Structure to design on (1012 residues):
């Protein structure tokens, strides 16, 4: 494992374990998931137990211990999106990608996640693909939205 | 010292001490699963609920996490308390229908069956094993992971608990006996944590008495001489 | 920028900024809140910039990128000042016209105006649009006037004057008294009296005290805190500095949701600029008072809205609440006295200090003073953020500001207070909105989400939705909350699948009791509200699910059938094309209406969405 990115993050927070959540955020951003080796390295350098880092890493929704796909799909399941039918969009994606929320396609192309609320309730249902927001989504529109990603025309 | 009443009976206690041990010492019967005096109170199982009244206002709280203050009135058997405890034990029983200790407790509270789909878990998530491992043993080999309905007690990254010293403290404190320890010739295994360690033989009696890994760790922590653990505890004096 | 060391310096600088600005100079403001962002405001901003350049009036017109104006439904929003002309749903192609017609010739572009849905009158000025007209935007209104990344903009509208007043002409205790007198209550959910909290923290023993801004807006369907942080971050920071001074704290934290990247970014910029100017750091404005703030990004856990869980998270621990027999104002973060308020509460502080408690108390009801920002979303015409005086009725919010229900459908319920709140029925539309009245009705204020539901929303499904949320978001420590929410979900799920049993309503009530009464924190304490309030007001809907195995709203998949209405079917074949399960029978050349095969239909709704003739119904 290349320890340099982890060291950079540790230094950014001056090896202070109170900033653990922030460090894991940065690690997640950097690697797109939290590799076990990186977490173990971090625990050792911070002088904290592996149980603690594992607890924190599995407690918060922002973190994933498994690698995510190249394209990240987030479907907002906030209340406003729910009452406008976001659940049907999730069903459609589950069917099309053959994965459940939290899962990643076997070719590592897509990850599907649901989020509690993105705070863009007025334009719900909201779907975010690789950070790009699309409002007033529906199952039919979803097909169209994903097309360029499927064909590899859009790079993340 | 402070004065309080429990079900009308006057009880004296040290200020700030938790209510549950005070009530238990005074002979009141309060069910509990996640309390153990060797670790900090936690309040996970919610069975030790009581009603506490002060300044005319009452509310239900877990007695294990309630530091006593002067003049409170504690009620351990109100309708509300008993109803809540019955529902809590029903929920725990539905989660771990095979645990005999839980079945027994439920029966005592008048709960014979559950109104939910039975799960096949055995751990009641009281956290005692992890808390003892952290606070008393200091090995930090296991603890909670995930949250909400996905919460579980496992070693970090699942698999074998590589920080476990196989001391067996967790086995002892587990209120439902689901961790399990096995000793075969020179090996000790903590079954639930998939941890097997070689044992050390006592130079005097020849019995295997504790895992090497554990003794070595204690020895280094305490800065003891290398031959300190050559003899077992019983042969030492 | 050189640090400002006195109030006199501050006022001198403020005058300089104001003098350099001509209030009559045309200024285009473009809303770039998340709603407008999703609607494509940035291409519009680019096109306007380009149009100003090609039109040769680049230097004569200011272009200001602002935070959320609130009227998200009609975004992207553009306002032309000083006339305050509101153009809505603006596209990049409209930019040349806006420049050549409105800015050069002073002509209004009719097609971009807001049309009153009832009178069909075209409304020119932003303030005349009913959506805005009936609001009282004392906290949120400035979002539309300033560029959140410009501290100069904030200073120009009087920013940091409350801080100057507090630091130089008020004693800390006097500020606490003023906040107490104002009647301000916590906008994060609990509605605790802010001044009382400050006082307890101020009086708690110890040298180190912390102040925290809770910006971990976790209620799904609420985004006012996000919009305040994105659009006017200095107002929140100013409130925090004043609070810290009053309480005697030198260190603060903002705990902000990481899912809000723009809020984090704008807050960071604001904090840096305010540091440069000397509103943070040592000896603020020469008063001798020191204060610093750090930004901490939340990990995405709803339970961290609970103050003790949030503090655990700040310490780098899992967000598990702890017992509060000793309150956090005495022993909070790192076991030091800690005062935590949410974003909107902090943003109210400068207003109160500037105007005085007496003035502030004029707004609101007996028990709830001031205004509250709500996110009015769901099945309502004018979705967006609205700031209204406490005491306004739900009807005024939904109908007068919100413009009623989409498509003229029937109002069914309004959900307030997030997962801790409840669903209120039509008969309560005249309920005045304040902390106590909402709680009495079985809901709560929460952080201010208001989700409007119509006849097509199933209340059992809504209760199930919240329980699914809560069973995942419970920290899992208390058996009563972890297992109670899980089992409530289980029971609701079987009801929505047509497997409900006699006695399930009573079972839900039992579970509600144990979850609320036996759990440690407010998450468990309020978790049953969505279930209890829907049972209370929509009991017959539960009964129809349980006894008749029907979902009257047509939502619960197992209880509905999709059907093609023969005489409305135009035999176009669109439904058949999109159906993922080959459940639609028919051929265009047969010239016979299409048919849905119930045994093959997976009830995904794609056909109904594809049909342009409303020929597919749910029975």
């Amino acid at each position: 494992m290349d320890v340099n990115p982890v060291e950079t993050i540790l230094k950014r927070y001056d090896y202070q374990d109170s900033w653990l959540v922030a460090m894991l955020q940065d690690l997640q951003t950097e690697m797109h998931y939290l590799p076990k080796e990186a977490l173990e390295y971090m625990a050792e350098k911070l002088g904290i137990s592996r149980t603690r880092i594992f607890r924190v890493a599995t407690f918060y929704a922002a973190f994933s211990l498994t690698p995510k796909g190249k394209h990240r799909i987030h479907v907002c399941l906030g209340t406003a999106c729910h009452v406008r039918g976001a659940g049907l969009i999730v069903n459609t994606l589950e069917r099309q990608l053959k994965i459940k929320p939290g899962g990643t396609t076997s070719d590592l192309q897509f990850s599907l996640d649901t989020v509690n609320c993105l705070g863009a309730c007025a334009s719900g249902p909201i779907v975010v693909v690789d950070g790009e927001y699309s409002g007033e989504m529906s199952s039919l529109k979803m097909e169209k939205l994903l097309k360029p990603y499927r064909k590899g025309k859009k790079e993340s | 010292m402070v004065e309080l009443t429990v079900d009308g009976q006057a009880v004296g206690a040290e200020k700030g001490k938790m209510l549950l041990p005070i009530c238990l010492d005074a002979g009141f019967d309060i069910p509990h699963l996640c309390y153990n005096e060797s670790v900090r109170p936690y309040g996970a199982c919610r069975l030790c609920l009581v009603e506490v009244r002060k300044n005319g206002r009452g509310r239900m709280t877990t007695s294990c996490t309630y530091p006593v203050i002067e003049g409170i009135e504690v009620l351990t058997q109100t309708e509300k308390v008993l109803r809540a405890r019955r529902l809590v034990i029903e929920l725990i029983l539905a989660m771990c229908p095979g645990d005999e200790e839980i079945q027994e407790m439920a029966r005592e509270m008048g709960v014979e069956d559950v109104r939910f789909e039975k799960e096949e878990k055995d751990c009641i998530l009281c956290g005692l094993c992890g808390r003892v491992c952290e606070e008393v043993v200091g090995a930090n080999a296991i603890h909670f992971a995930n949250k909400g309905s996905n919460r579980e007690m496992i070693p970090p990254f699942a698999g074998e608990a590589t920080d476990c010293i196989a001391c067996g403290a967790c086995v002892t404190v587990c209120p439902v006996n689901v961790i399990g320890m096995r000793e075969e010739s020179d090996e000790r295994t903590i079954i639930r944590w998939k941890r097997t360690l070689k044992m050390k033989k006592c130079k005097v009696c020849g019995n295997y008495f504790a895992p090497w890994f554990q003794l070595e760790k204690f020895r280094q922590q305490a800065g003891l001489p290398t031959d300190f653990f050559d003899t077992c505890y019983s042969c030492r004096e | 920028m050189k640090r400002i060391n006195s109030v006199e310096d501050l006022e001198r600088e403020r005058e300089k900024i104001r003098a350099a600005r001509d209030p009559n100079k045309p200024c285009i403001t473009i809303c770039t809140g998340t709603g407008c962002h999703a609607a494509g405001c940035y291409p519009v901003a680019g096109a306007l910039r380009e149009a100003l350049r090609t039109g040769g009036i680049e230097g004569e017109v200011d272009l200001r990128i602002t935070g959320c104006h609130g009227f998200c439904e009609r975004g992207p929003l553009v306002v032309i000042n000083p006339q305050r002309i509101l153009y809505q749903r603006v596209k990049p192609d409209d930019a040349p016209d806006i420049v050549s017609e409105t800015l050069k010739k002073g002509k209004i572009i009719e097609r971009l105006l807001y049309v009153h849905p009832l009178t069909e009158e075209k409304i020119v000025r932003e303030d005349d649009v009913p959506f805005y007209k009936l609001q009282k935007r004392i906290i949120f209104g400035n979002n539309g006037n300033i560029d959140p990344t410009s501290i100069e903009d904030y200073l120009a509208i009087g920013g940091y004057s409350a801080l100057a007043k507090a630091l130089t002409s008020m004693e800390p205790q006097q500020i606490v008294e003023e906040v107490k007198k104002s009647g301000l209550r916590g906008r994060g959910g609990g509605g605790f009296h802010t001044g009382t909290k400050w006082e307890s923290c101020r009086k708690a023993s110890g040298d180190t005290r912390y102040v925290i801004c809770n910006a971990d807006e976790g209620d799904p369907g609420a985004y006012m805190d996000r919009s305040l942080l994105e659009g006017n971050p200095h107002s929140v920071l100013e409130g925090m500095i004043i609070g810290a001074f009053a309480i005697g704290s030198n260190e603060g934290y903002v705990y902000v949701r990481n899912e809000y990247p723009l809020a984090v970014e704008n807050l960071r910029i604001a904090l840096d600029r305010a540091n440069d100017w000397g509103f943070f750091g040592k000896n603020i404005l020469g008063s001798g008072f020191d204060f610093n703030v750090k930004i901490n990004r939340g990990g995405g856990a709803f339970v961290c809205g609970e103050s003790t869980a949030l503090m655990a998270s700040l310490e780098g621990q899992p967000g598990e609440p702890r017992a509060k027999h000793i309150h956090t104002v005495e022993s909070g973060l790192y076991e030091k006295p800690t005062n935590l308020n949410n974003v909107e509460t902090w943003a109210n502080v400068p207003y109160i200090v500037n105007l005085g408690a007496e003035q502030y108390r004029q707004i609101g009801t007996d028990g709830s003073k001031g205004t509250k920002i709500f996110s009015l979303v769901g099945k309502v015409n004018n979705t967006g953020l609205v700031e209204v005086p406490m005491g306004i009725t739900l009807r005024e919010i939904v109908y007068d500001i919100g413009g009623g229900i989409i498509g003229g459908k029937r109002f069914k319920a309004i959900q307030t207070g997030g997962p801790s709140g409840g669903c209120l029925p039509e008969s309560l539309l005249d309920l005045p909105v304040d902390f106590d009245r909402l709680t009495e009705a079985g809901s709560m204020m929460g952080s201010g989400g208001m989700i409007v539901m119509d006849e097509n929303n199933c209340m059992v499904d809504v209760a199930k939705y919240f329980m699914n949320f809560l069973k995942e978001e419970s920290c899992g420590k208390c058996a009563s909350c972890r297992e109670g929410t899980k089992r409530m979900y289980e029971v609701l799920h079987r009801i929505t699948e047509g497997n409900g049993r006699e006695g399930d309503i009573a079972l839900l009530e039992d579970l509600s009791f144990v979850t609320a009464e036996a759990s440690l924190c407010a998450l468990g304490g309020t978790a049953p509200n969505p279930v209890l309030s829907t049972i209370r007001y929509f009991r017959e809907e539960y009964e129809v699910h349980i006894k008749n195995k029907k979902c009257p709203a047509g939502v619960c998949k197992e209880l509905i059938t999709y059907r093609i209405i023969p005489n409305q079917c135009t035999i176009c074949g669109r439904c058949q094309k999109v159906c993922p399960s080959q459940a639609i029978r028919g051929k265009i050349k047969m010239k016979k209406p299409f048919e849905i095969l119930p045994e093959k239909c997976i009830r995904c709704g794609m056909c109904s969405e594809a049909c342009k003739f409303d020929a597919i119904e749910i029975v």
User: Anything to note?
Assistant: Residues 25 and 60 of chain C are 7 Å apart (CA to CA). Chain C has five domains: 21-129, 151-361, 371-454, 459-548, 561-618. The first helix of chain C runs from residue 7 to 19. Chain C has a mean pLDDT of 95.
